[in-house]
Amino acid sequence: MAISSFGRFETYAARLAAVSLSAAVALPLGGVAAHAGAVGAVPTASAPELPAPAFRLFSSELRIGDSGPEVKRLQQRLMDLGYWLDTADGEFGGLTLHAVWALQKAAGIDRDGIVGPITRKALDNGVRPSAQTSSGQVVEIDLERQLLLVVSNGTVEKVFNTSTGSGKKYESRGEQHVAVTPKGRYSVFRDVDAWDPGPLGSLYRPKYFNGGIAIHGYTSVPPYPASHGCARVSIKAMDWLWESGRLDIYSTVLVR
């Protein structure tokens, strides 16, 4: 008789005359098993081993607006893999969408924000991006995958959805520019602990690392390049970056 379908043990009793024998089969996380001998049956051979079920977190498609235990398990799995979320509250809101986008970017799959079979497989496989640096405390901006990574001695600790320079032309103060985020190794040299107004709009709690280019919070952070050159993250993600101390003055920022 199966006692639990998640993280417990299945036991069965099938015995001869006065002999009592029990076996426990460990279930992997997310696995579901049901196995029991027929009541009153007397086996003539030892019970077969249960096949190890594949790791699966979810049984249905999940998307923004959903809620409940399956969403909470999704959130916890994302957090366990390093994709930043403030909490696992069972509500599929904007921050969960950003974390799903980040996972999809790391996996190289469609950035639709929907947790369907392909995205579930990426979760099952434990997809995580890798760092380019191997030492020190660094914030890496991956332009190709549009990810912002918080890295410690080569280990990726947190992964954020980001949106960098769109590559489009724009005009500012009567001059033509191209919206790019230049590659290179920089240091944070100035920050503003507030909304910082500028000619192209206000930036939330910006950390400037290259002229007027900053990592900053913004109300719109799509899963593709859309900024004038800065690296956008969500408002709450920017709050975390400030509070974590990982983007203090002189912190290293690698754009790659």
From TrEMBL:
Query: Signal: is it a keyword of this entry?
Result: yes
How far does the signal peptide extend, from start to end residue? 1-36
Q: Name one Pfam family in it.
A: PG_binding_1
L,D-TPase catalytic domain: residues covered: 137-256
Hey, which pathway is this one from? Cell wall biogenesis; peptidoglycan biosynthesis
Output the InterPro entries linked to this UniProt entry.
LD-transpeptidase, LD_TPept_cat_dom, Peptidoglycan-bd-like, PGBD-like_sf, PGBDSf, Transpep_catalytic_dom
Is Glycosyltransferase tagged as a keyword? no
Which residues constitute the catalytic centre?
216 (proton donor/acceptor), 230 (nucleophile)
Keywords (A to Z) from UniProt: Cell shape, Cell wall biogenesis/degradation, Peptidoglycan synthesis, Signal, Transferase
- Protein name from the UniProt record: L,D-TPase catalytic domain-containing protein
Traced from the root, the source organism's taxonomic lineage reads: Bacteria, Bacillati, Actinomycetota, Actinomycetes, Streptosporangiales
